[in-house]
Design a protein that fits this description.
By secondary structure, the protein is α/β, with parallel strands linked by helices. It has 2 domains: 221 residues, Rossmann fold (3-Layer(aba) Sandwich); 99 residues. 39% of the residues lie in helices and 16% in strands. It has 10 helices and 10 strands. The strands form 2 sheets. A 7-stranded parallel sheet has the order 3-2-1-4-5-6-9, sandwiched between helices. A 3-stranded mixed sheet has the order 7-8-10. Helix 4 links the parallel strand 4 and strand 5. It is globular. It starts with a strand and ends with a helix. Bound molecules: NADPH dihydro-nicotinamide-adenine-dinucleotide phosphate. NADPH dihydro-nicotinamide-adenine-dinucleotide phosphate binds next to helix 1 and strand 7.
């Protein structure tokens, strides 16, 4: 069985690819350049079940044509993860919204044209951002929630642009399926994670600046002693390995078909992270912000009991995630 994974260089994608290879799938990854493919080939120890195709820019609606055409009978599953993950851009529409939406529309049209019957499952990595109403920050979020933003509002700032990009891209996938019933054979599952944290798949990638979500938590983990640490709920978290597992489960678990899965364990404050660092890394005391053992608030606005029941595995908790990330970062800093 072969799986096409778009955005194969990504933080989450590397964990997904690793899991797929361990479960004996053949994987075709899309990357933006030959150099990026060469790095991944080496990282995955030249695994013969892992090959790459170059897709330079998903904003181009025909970007995936050559990939789907060349592997038309081979690809059984698609995990579409490539999307801009940034809150800064010169032009929010051109740099964030259009690539996200065109990437999704483009790959779906390519499948319709070249592999309408061989692709059986399409899994898209959406986001809690596709569900959140930025103007109502206390609203409860469930598997039914939709971000109400308009295309125009999504161009007001970076957070609105990223959130809008995830909403419009996910909507494009559901709409496509509705409009192409009977023409394409595949089923759809969307994975909507909250903040994804946890170790990088490969230690060498834990050096320097990390991907957007991990960089947020890393700043709190290693905040200097005198820092003002935010004690309010910052958001909700989930471990990258749990997110990867949900993608792979979605390929073969029919109960997940047609579902939007919210990947979230619990809410967190930055002070929770600082407290874990102080407890588990006593050697850093005096070098990082101090613990504060007063009671911290809990958010609880993400209600994903349905997803948890469907997936049936326990998500990792914040302590395990922070410790695994810190161990990896400290290890590579010593090298
Ligand atoms: P990364 O930034 O690590 O990965 C993004 C991937 O998309 C990279 O492979 C990147 O390629 C590719 N990409 C971005 N823009 C383009 C483009 N215009 N053309 C071609 N490829 C492009 O992010 P994550 O692993 O964190 O995110 C993966 C997916 O998960 C995204 O869809 C994201 O929205 C979603 N997600 C992430 C969350 C998180 O907390 N990390 C939370 C919720 C959802 P390159 O490496 O070459 O830049």
């Amino acid at each position: 069985m072969s799986v096409l994974v778009t955005g194969a260089t990504g933080y989450i994608a590397l964990h997904v690819i690793d899991l797929l290879l361990k479960e004996n799938y053949r994987v075709i990854g899309t990357v933006r350049s030959k150099e990026k493919a060469a790095k991944l080939e080496k990282q995955f120890n030249y695994n013969k079940d892992l090959t790459f195709e170059i897709v330079e820019d998903i904003a181009n609606l025909s970007a995936f044509d050559h990939v789907i055409k060349n592997h038309a009978n081979e690809i059984n599953y698609v995990i579409h993860m490539a999307s801009p993950v940034t809150f800064t851009a010169d032009d929010f529409e051109k740099d964030i919204l259009i690539p996200a939406v065109n990437g999704t529309k483009g790959i779906l049209e390519s499948i319709k044209q070249y592999a309408p019957k061989s692709v059986k499952k399409f899994v898209i990595t959406s986001s809690i951002a596709a569900m959140m109403d930025l103007t109502n920050p206390t609203a409860i979020l469930t598997e039914q929630s939709w971000n109400p933003t308009t295309w125009e509002q999504a161009q007001e700032n970076g957070i609105a642009a990223y959130s809008g990009s995830k909403k419009f891209a996910e909507k494009a996938a559901w709409n496509f399926l509705e409009e192409n019933k009977g023409i394409v054979d595949f089923k759809l599952t969307t994975i909507n994670p909250v903040f994804v944290f946890g170790p990088q798949k490969f230690d060498e990638d834990a050096k320097g600046k990390l991907n957007s979500s991990c960089e947020i938590i890393k700043e709190a983990m290693f905040a200097p002693t005198e820092s003002e640490i935010d004690k309010s709920v910052f958001g909700s978290y989930v471990d990258v390995r749990d997110v990867a597992r949900a993608h792979v489960c979605s390929l073969h678990n029919d109960e997940l078909t047609g579902k939007r899965l919210i990947l979230s364990n619990a809410s967190f404050t930055k002070q929770n992270i600082v407290n874990i660092m102080n407890k588990r890394f006593p050697q850093l005391k005096g070098k990082i912000a101090p613990a504060d053992n007063s009671e911290l608030p809990q958010g609880g606005r993400v209600h994903n009991e349905k997803t948890k029941a469907l997936l049936g595995y326990i998500f990792k908790d914040l302590e395990e995630i922070v410790v695994d990330m810190a161990d990896q970062i400290l290890k590579v800093q010593e090298q």
